[in-house]
Amino acid sequence: xxxxxxxxxxxxxxxxxxxxxxxxxxxxxxxxxxxxxxxxxxxxxxxxxxxxxxxxxxxxxxxxxxxxxxxxxxxxxxxxxxxxxxxxxxxxxxxxxxxxxxxxxxxxxxxxxxxxxxxxxxxxxxxxxxxxxxxxxxxxxxxxxxxxxxxxxxxxxxxxxxxxxxxxxxxxxxxxxxxxxxxxxxxxxxxxxxxxxxxxxxxxxxxxxxxxxxxxxxxxxxxxxxxxxxxxxxxxxxxxxxxxxxxxxxxxxxxxxxxxxxxxxxxxxxxxxxxxxxxxxxxxxxxxxxxxxxxxxxxxxxxxxxxxxxxxxxxxxxxxxxxxxxxxxxxxxxxxxxxxxxxxxxxxxxxxxxxxxxxxxxxxxxxxxxxxxxxxxxxxxxxxxxxxxxxxxxxxxxxxxxxxxxxxxxxxxxxxxxxxxxxxxxxxxxxxxxxxxxxxxxxxxxxxxxxxxxxxxxxxxxxxxxxxxxxxxxxxxxxxxxxxxxxxxxxxxxxxxxxxxxxxxxxxxxxxxxxxxxxxxxxxxxxxxxxxxxxxxxxxxxxxxxxxxxxxxxxxxxxxxxxxxxxxxxxxxxxxxxxxxxxxxxxxxxxxxxxxxxxxxxxxxxxxxxxxxxxxxxxxxxxxxxxxxxxxxxxxxxxxxxxxxxxxxxxxxxxxxxxxxxxxxxxxxxxxxxxxxxxxxxxxxxxxxxxxxxxxxxxxxxxxxx
Length: 706
Prior knowledge:
Strand 20, helix 25 and strand 21 form a beta-alpha-beta unit. The strands form 5 sheets. Strands 10-9-8-11-12-13 form a 6-stranded parallel β-sheet. It is of the alpha/beta class. 43% of the residues lie in helices and 18% in strands.
């Protein structure tokens, strides 16, 4: 993420409301500026199935009752007038909420009689809470003075151009300040730029139509439609079903550069508008308003005012060099039809499209991002989180791995199955990320939930964030390591195995020796169970401290599995029993259960449990594991029990993305598979080669040493 979006952020996200705030546009200006005339033209020209046009004073008059009107309203006390004004704007808001129409309301902000030192504000808190836009009709004081004098319909107080100028300036200043505080979009319409009423009405009409599609809710709906289209296009391009999505932030993640700052630096070199270290227009907006939807819209409007926008984007893209690790990763996407890659950036979409085209990745890496106000989307931190949730959820159910570098990326990273924090050089990395990470991890630990975050160091010798225990390091530079293999469907990262370790080779030898069966083989399986429990399950679930007596007579600290007494070990009968005994030896406080079928696992076996360990000797196609997991999840209302499957051997095919077990291992953050070794051998034992028969000597072909 660029430095334009680098400040401490809360990691909590706000859901877009199912019933969004209605769009209500206020037409404001001094008395005589033409509000009523504009409103009459809008009533005739705007589609009635899209817009509802209101004259504020007429709504107030209608609220006075059938036998009263505006004259009666003017006779009320100031307190009563305020009450009716609030009732009027609230009624307009409620009608627009119910109908779904955009409300257009002409009203007054303040009155300033001749001779008064200050104007009287008649705007209410209800107005401030209702309006989403304000279009202000701004006229030269002399022009306004002439209009007021020639008005044949209304008798207006005679005031000087100087008084009108002061009134208009103060009214615009106050409205602009209120708009910024309330997230209202304030637009000044300079009457000198329009020839006649028709051109002014045409401009207002155009802006009103734009307002219908610029709400955060509409933006959210368009964004999800774009994601749907991307998945459909990736699917149409290949014969393989898409099962994995890689979602990337751009600036400071894929490259060390901040393309947003580079854009404004190049723009300023032409206009001499900002210095080398001065804040860019985008940075100034974010500092004043934070990273809100409206702030990103304002940044988009600032891009719209830049001449030669496309040329500048080209110039910036030419200078972008991707990190080699990510360039290699993205090029691998071209060769794997089941993996799609999406760059979702709060920066400039066009720059990143050009960067991908330069690397011949344009057809394989989709880009969603910001740009000028004519762009299809406004991308915020919430937007990026929504992209990940869309890809992970129905109907796609993809395994999503997200990459980012700053606090603005955290909602996206935490929403993914795996979130990779890219850690660059200390001088250029996000300054606020360390604290944001600590808070996020601490909140999860408090809730007893494991986090899905790890870190990638680029280059590999930079100092990590936090420490390796809190935030494990993954190596993106080695395509053969387990993490990189898991991205492209070779092995899921939730599979832990000891296949190539010397200790595993010793432990597996008796299990492969045809001369060993019966008690000796059961003992070999027991040792494997104990080894896998102590080597892998302890790192997955964690440890807790407790007091033990020291041999020298004082108390000292011992360690055991986290919430060991709230752990259930399920021996999948019959082949899993010997290995399960070894797991139980490591975790002696755990409950032990024999299960021939999933129905043998009862609700009371799961009640208040933290971890369920399913133990089987071999996982071939994963069918048995899936049945037991479905049974457990069906009774686990909170879906927060850790399920760890322990096996001596796992067939690698069962963990692939084309198999249900493989997809679940990539999607269910609380399902892990621990194995002594992973095998590509598809052989399934029968008779004397069946593991259960060898363990218990139950087939006549089993050779039992004498």
